[in-house]
Amino acid sequence: MEKRMRTHDDDNTIKQPEIATQKKPMTEEKKQKIPDHQKEDRISNMPDAILHHIISLVPFTCAVRTSILSKRWEGLWESTSAYTTTLDFGREFATSVSLPLHLLTCAINRILQKHRGKTIETFRLYFCPQNMFLPHIQRWILFAKKKTVRELDLDFTPFQTTCQDLGLRLYELPPCLFSCHSLTILKLSDCKFNLPSPFRGFSSLKTLHLIRVEITPYALDSMLLKCPMLEDLSLMVCYCSKQPFELSATNLKIKSFALTGYNSLGNVGSFLSKLAPHLQILTICHVKIQDFNVQGHENAPGNSPIAFPNLIELHLGVCNGSSLAAVYAFFKNWNFPCLEKLMLEWIPDNLRESNKMVQQASFVFHHLKTIKINRFFGTEKQMQMVKFLLEKAVALETMVLVIPTEDIKVSPRNDYISQAKSKVARLRLLHEQLLLLSKESTNARFVLKNHTEDDDSVLATHYRYQRSLLS
């Protein structure tokens, strides 16, 4: 019994940092004994050809940083970019050079003028779209198009603030971008997406990520209709009218789809059902669960759950105003027979209770091995959800519960937990309570982690991308 009630102490142990031993400072006498030739900067005295070769071996953004070493290194990195296939003027570049916008513009122009390669694989740009710089931005995009760029990543997020704070309008993409048929990856942030007429599409595009992009459902449908190779689609906090999503394309083979930051959209369920056959990774966060109902399907005679036959990873978030019944209904109406990994961004505390409980469906998760719940406080609603999942996941191996930085909250029924003297003690009592729950999988184990101890290996695929973009 004692072993059963023990928690993973390793997860809650605070490791003491290693203390590096400090070397005693050299005396003036020893300093004077160092030969003069050892003080020379021998690397800087090497011929330009060797220095160019050294710089060519490091990433573009690291090469930029060499300009601060000494005057000898100034400008050396620019010549090495003449034949590079990656032109990365993204966030890391802007931070490295740390220049005002007008000087940053001059630096980018100078690099592009010296480029002699016929093609480039990747072009990244992080730039504030102030009016005086718009002609430069258009020329840079045109440059990338002429070099038959394959990956284009344009981020127009204003530095340290928002477009609204600066009184700026969203940058409207130039027509030349939409005739760049070499693209396989297109990532856009903080801009306006208006398709020109005519638009022939991107025949080779496989990845489309839109973050805080203004786009109409009609433009999105037209885009998808003419991108037959698209496999990865992300719509994150995009500005979209309240018109219902319509999908005309019938031959889409999208394998990864993320939809986040929409409060109320019509017809999302029908849109999602048309993507279902090929989806392998799905993220839906900050969207009302009710919006995923397919109109007319629930009351159709002989209806059955809509299947996602190939889905292996689901990241589900629930916004305010939903109920536990709606969450249960989601799993009842949508079938995930091959699901292996489930991540839940936990339900807010003001989640509405529902006296109407959904009739328990006969489905089970036959292949679900990992469940992760973020912001787990141990409330009664959360315990109900945990119990529900334990009953349905017959092959479960690990359930990871991430405790937020706030303290554990408990329901009146679990008041004895709140009386514990420390957070570690409350964590132990919570773990004991979890062990009392019945579970279909005898191999299932609980892992309770503090938020700072979170493991990237169980993060959702789309969350890892979004965090790297915003960091």
TrEMBL record:
InterPro entries: At1g61320/At1g61330-like, F-box-like_dom_sf, F-box_AtFBL13-like, F-box_dom, FBD, LRR_dom_sf, LRR_FXL15/At3g58940/PEG3-like
Superkingdom of origin: Eukaryota
Database matches in Gene3D superfamilies: Ribonuclease Inhibitor
Residue ranges occupied by any F-box domain in the UniProt entry: 40-86
Biased composition (Basic and acidic residues): 1-13, 25-41
UniProt cross-references to Pfam families, sorted A to Z: F-box, FBD, LRR_At5g56370
SUPFAM superfamilies xref list: F-box domain, RNI-like
SMART domains with a match to the protein in the record: FBD
Protein's name in the database: F-box/LRR-repeat protein 13-like protein
Record organism: Cinnamomum micranthum f. kanehirae
